[in-house]
Amino acid sequence: MQRTANPCKPVRFRPRPPFFVMIKNLTLTDFRNHISCRVETDGRHNVIITGPNGAGKTAIIEAVSMLGGDRGMRGAPMSDIARFDGTGGFSVFATLSDDTDVCVYFNSGDANRHAKIDGDNATIGELGNLLRIIWLTPREDRIFVDGTTDRRAFFDRLAAGFDSAHSGRVARLAKLLSERAGALKNNADAHWLDALDAQIAATSVAIAAARIQYAGEINFFLSDYAVSVTGMVESMILKTNAANAEREYLEYLKQNRTLVYDKMVLDGVNKSDFGVFNKKLNLPANLTSTGQQKTTLIALILAHAKLVFIKTGHEPIILLDEAAAHLDADARKNLFHSLAMANAQVWATGLDADVFRDVADATFVACLGGEIKI
């Protein structure tokens, strides 16, 4: 006789264990100014890379940033990353704490980078399912006061931390918009434009929905700040729902098929903006001081690390270039302690190792002109 479960007895589900995946070791070949170097993290949560200017500290964490499926924190062309006196190719290889091997490499004469997972060919996007990487560099120190493009890109990278498909959608939209502009310039057939507009509308709504979701979820982990996203498509979704927003935006696209001075003028998620409000000061972040903006960024990174861990079970990897900038000793100590409590592996760079001596659970790496000493 087949046994059935007692409908009156609650079923206990055993949760899946979290994936504490960190980088165990990193090997660079012909990357920037590094001919070959290897970094062993010893399983530590904090990897502190120190050395003089021009020694290649930032290049190391840039290499780490490429293992998350992104173009890297500088967004440079692959040919520019290859060591200047090399043959034009490079590789970034890492062994993770679960013994998975991941690799990103580029060959001279090939416009694209490639990936391998455990020695097998993989797509770049698949790397994002293994490692969730976000970075904070001196460039991000100005995201609240500079233009919307960098700010939007920063928050899109955050959103992709637990929605790995988000970056692909954003890249796809940029390609579709470029194709649409070309079609308009060449007086393309209306049926072709209809097909393009349908894809743009669907992709735009998916991007806007992911942004709205991210803003709502990260706010749960922020006590002194509030993140918001504004834009045409986001407003359409919030006013009704995603399905209606897609139809409404598609109609907008069909009504706007003209060029102005040979350029396509189009509103949408490519024009959306993110804002952060400082509740303690009762001011938007862009009206606060430089030090307060840095504190706001750190709070965002801490909240993001907690969110990624809760949503995905992955420990995010956080890259901090010039981590000591604008922070005193207590602030640095609190930052690394908070990041450790938030379940994150941190790779940080700085000029002076003594500045980081109070950082616990750390491996110190001395970078001297492309040479590594641990």
Provide a concise account of the structure shown.
By secondary structure, the protein is α+β, with helices and mostly antiparallel strands.
What report would you give on this structure?
Helix content is 37%, strand content 22%. The chain has 374 residues and is α+β, with helices and mostly antiparallel strands. A six-stranded antiparallel beta sheet has the order 2-1-4-5-6-7. It has a six-stranded mixed beta sheet with strand order 8-14-15-3-16-17, with helices on both faces. Strands 9-12-13 form a three-stranded antiparallel beta sheet. It is globular, with a radius of gyration of 23 Å. The relative contact order is 0.17. Mean pLDDT is 86; it is low at 1-18.
The CATH class assignment of the largest domain is: Alpha Beta
**CATH hierarchy: architecture of the largest domain:** 3-Layer(aba) Sandwich
Beta-strand residue percentage = 15-25%
In order across it, which strands form the biggest sheet?
2-1-4-5-6-7
